[in-house]
Amino acid sequence: MREALAEAAFQLFLERGYEQTTVDDIVARAGVGRRSFFRYFPSKEDAVFPDHESCLADMTALLDGRDGPDPVGAVCDAARLVMRMYAANPEFSVQRYGLTQEVPGLRTYELSVVRRYEGTLAGYLRRRWAESPDGGLRADVVAAAVVAAHNNALRSWLRSGGVGDAEAAVDHALGLVRDVWGSAAGVPAADGVRVTVPKRAAQGAPGGRGDGPAAESDDDVIVMVASRRAPMWRVVQSIEAAMAAG
Amino acid sequence: MREALAEAAFQLFLERGYEQTTVDDIVARAGVGRRSFFRYFPSKEDAVFPDHESCLADMTALLDGRDGPDPVGAVCDAARLVMRMYAANPEFSVQRYGLTQEVPGLRTYELSVVRRYEGTLAGYLRRRWAESPDGGLRADVVAAAVVAAHNNALRSWLRSGGVGDAEAAVDHALGLVRDVWGSAAGVPAADGVRVTVPKRAAQGAPGGRGDGPAAESDDDVIVMVASRRAPMWRVVQSIEAAMAAG
User: Fold this and answer.
1) Is A123 helix (H, G, I), strand (E, B) or coil?
2) Candidates 3.20.20.450, 3.40.47.10, 3.40.50.10860, 1.10.357.10; correct CATH number of A51-185?
3) What is the mean pLDDT of chain B?
């Protein structure tokens, strides 16, 4: 019944436009009474995003079970649930994205949903880092970074029409956050040192910065995260290996 | 006139509550006609946040003038404009924060304003990193991290009743982002290497993790950002110096 209502609502939104569709239209199409609609959805907006509540519940359940040594990994896995929900139904997700772009009220609704996801992730990190200096600050920043990375991948996938590997795209985006925050905020890799050397931009690209010999590119840096207990030879070895491969 | 309207509106919101105050009440209190209100504010919500539009314009102007080698520094400076606006009038800011907590419509409005700030910062970074691999992704993530850090400091300051040094708090919060993203995304410090060693949590704090000799704390890591051109001796020296001081 809930699914039938959401489907009827969405068909009508596409046919007539979101603003022009009333709850009465929706229940007529679904062949049920008006009260049934409000039993399942608090508002018309909620019928556009019928799965966020259960996704938020899944996210909370996933995080409740994750008390291991990698809290940033846990919030990345939690964020992946959202992409998985969108990727389960590409056509619907892409059409809804188009609808959301057109209706300011839906964009506002979506902002508040994103904020709830972010709050769920930040709340988990706050608890994990309750004893750490700046734990609350780090929790907010990492949760925001994870959500931004996830949404960047999600938006690219939606704009491409839902083609391509959505989960690979989100893994790549979250990898960027893990590279700088994952180890810094959790436990470094097994060898105690992790080094990131950004790939060079293509040489000679129009407007590229590799023209002058002294030009300092944004990518001319390496980032290293190491355990305090890593021996210095291991640090040096890891940096040299990463530079050679970069 | 604009200021008088915003003041009248705010007094009434505090006296009668936000929902109970109409635009007619506001113009009556300010002694002007109804049309005057809508000449200055598109909606009642806008009268609660009369300065965001000019702050957004200031932010755009600041960023337009910043084409130097430190784009992350530029967005941090742009974010500071928001804190400065709040700190210019602590009493008003703290009262408004209380009002925003009580009225869901104002929280939604605020979310959309925050989103516009974040979009302004991300747009600047996208342009700066247009030629970099993953430039758009990094732009979104860094903008979100900067806004989250800023808002963490702003919220703490508002909750404390607007006492304390708001700008120092926001500097500290933004420092966390710059430590991991600033150099990684821009140019490292003059000596080519920057090392961050988180301060240890107080020993013996209840629930602290320093109990067991082998306990791995979230803070047992160092983060280093270095120019690709930094000599290895400089890297080693910087890490050793930071460890000794940490």
Assistant:
1) helix
2) 1.10.357.10
3) 84
